[in-house]
Design goal:
2 domains, about 475 residues, elongated, mainly alpha
């Protein structure tokens, strides 16, 4: 009996204007998505070319300074740690649209100290630090609305309520529901039959449109997909199914609770708008006001004040660093190393703490908004596409580990030079001999998708919750 009810619902849906609108709109959106992200500005090909350019320039940078000396390479750093563009960026832009795709590990220029009295002239590079960059997302409409799979998923949740708002309420009003229930069929069978009818109606055009999208991206965009990408794409189709299923159950719940289809549609539209837009915006604003992050100017003032304090401590008085470091005077060079270390620790603490505050605030807002199935769907899609906030936080942690790996490499190489003072991070205290550039450690990004499991679990939980609500509501409702 479930099968017959499902076929009846599918046949009815195929004859509606909403189905015609969906089968026209979905392929158009997916084709636009494919063309934009395979050839458009900011698409994968453009980003990949930029990534390869940065990698090439970084290699030249390392070779240039490694050929001069280990000391020079240690002070200027290995350059950028670029984040490889995701081949699945067309599905979910995520934080990759608002943060830099690379983190620089560098020393900011050369600082000169003019001698005076007993002081000596000296030029030095500040210690290495990671430079985090946040790019403005802008206010243009093309920045605000991205035609990617997440956007299409939100649209599919809207179509889900369009196909279910009148499934029970309309049949109750026409009297066909009581006629159906007069046969040997349970309410559970009726509910499941209607659910599967809507689910098949929505998912078949969606899957066909997805296949068209992937064909265009693979052929015209010349973007190769490996086993990992195909498995993640399959996972994204599963996320579409979970989201659509959730809103079908929500639609069946309201349709069984109210007396007419119009009332059901109004309640469903209000619920959809609240879950898709209002609720995430309100929580994001609440979290921002709850724990405001210091501005760039405030951080700059804090940094300057702490560095000035260090300068007063190490440059003032009758002791410390009046004399420039020298290979002939190891004790003087060690004093400068302590000064540089104090500066480096301060710079590291301020920069890392600021970006950590920003990332934690974004993560908190997203954790709270996951009470909405639409937000949960978005974050799961970003996780599979490797454009999520969690993925970027992992990238930052890996960049920090790479910073320490590079420093450890410099110290290990320096130990092999018997003529060196082995004092880091002062140029005069490190080896003045060239180093093999091929031996310099290279940054390698490692990607994890474990964070997606929690979002998948939430979507499954949403399905179970709204299925139970729809089932109980239908059992308690009048059929006449």
């Amino acid at each position: 009996m479930i099968w017959q009810i499902m076929l009846k619902e599918i046949h009815h849906n195929l004859t509606t204007l909403r189905f015609a609108l969906m089968v026209i709109l979905l392929p158009v959106l997916f084709m636009v998505n494919a063309l934009i992200y395979s050839h458009g500005g900011g698409g994968y090909i453009m980003q990949m070319n930029d990534y390869n350019r940065r990698v090439t320039e970084n290699k030249k940078h390392v070779i240039k300074y490694a050929d001069q000396s280990l000391a020079e390479l240690a002070l200027v750093g290995p350059g950028e740690t670029p984040k490889r563009p995701s081949r699945l960026m067309f599905s979910a832009g995520g934080v990759d649209e608002v943060v830099s795709r690379s983190i620089e590990m560098k020393s900011e220029g050369i600082i000169s100290r003019s001698g005076g009295g007993k002081d000596e002239d000296y030029k030095w590079r500040p210690p290495l630090k990671l430079a985090y960059k946040v790019e403005s997302a802008g206010n243009t409409p093309t920045r605000r609305i991205k035609i990617n799979w997440v956007f299409i998923g939100i649209l599919m949740s809207f179509f889900a309520i369009l196909f279910t708002f009148d499934m029970i309420a309309e049949e109750r009003a026409r009297g066909t529901l009581s006629l159906m229930m007069s046969n040997t069929v349970s309410r559970g069978q009726v509910l499941l039959g209607k659910y599967f009818g809507a689910f098949v109606t929505l998912m078949v055009p969606l899957i066909i449109s997805i296949l068209m999208n992937l064909l265009i991206i693979h052929v015209l965009g010349d973007i190769p997909f490996g086993t990992s990408e195909w498995l993640r794409i399959l996972g994204m189709v599963g996320l579409f199914a979970l989201l659509v299923s959730t809103f079908i159950f929500i639609g069946l719940f309201f349709s069984s609770r109210v007396s007419n289809a119009i009332t059901s549609l109004v309640w469903l539209l209000l619920t959809w708008v609240f879950l898709a837009f209002v609720f995430p915006s309100l929580l994001g604003t609440f979290v921002g006001n709850l724990n405001p992050i210091p501005s760039v100017d405030e951080i700059s003032m804090q940094r300057r004040a702490q560095l000035d304090q260090i300068d007063d401590e190490w440059k003032g008085g009758a002791n410390k660093i009046k004399k420039a470091p020298s290979i002939e005077y190891p004790s003087r060079t060690r004093t400068w190393a302590e000064y540089f270390t104090a500066i480096g620790d301060t710079e590291k603490q301020i920069a890392d703490q600021h970006i950590d505050q920003q990332l934690r605030q974004v993560q908190l807002a997203r954790d709270l908004t996951q009470i909405s199935p639409i937000a949960t769907f978005q974050y799961a899609m970003e996780g599979l596409a490797n454009t999520s906030i969690t993925g970027y936080m992992d990238f930052v942690k890996q960049a920090r580990r790479y910073r320490q790996t590079f420093i450890d490499f410099v110290k290990a190489e320096d130990q092999n030079d018997p003529e060196s003072l082995h004092i880091y991070p002062v140029r005069e205290g490190l080896s003045q001999k060239p180093v093999n550039p091929d031996a310099v450690p290279v940054f390698e990004e490692r990607i994890s998708y474990r964070s997606v499991l929690s979002q998948v679990g939430l979507l499954v939980l949403f399905n179970l919750l709204f299925f139970i609500m729809a089932q109980v509501s239908f059992l308690m409702s009048e059929i006449k």
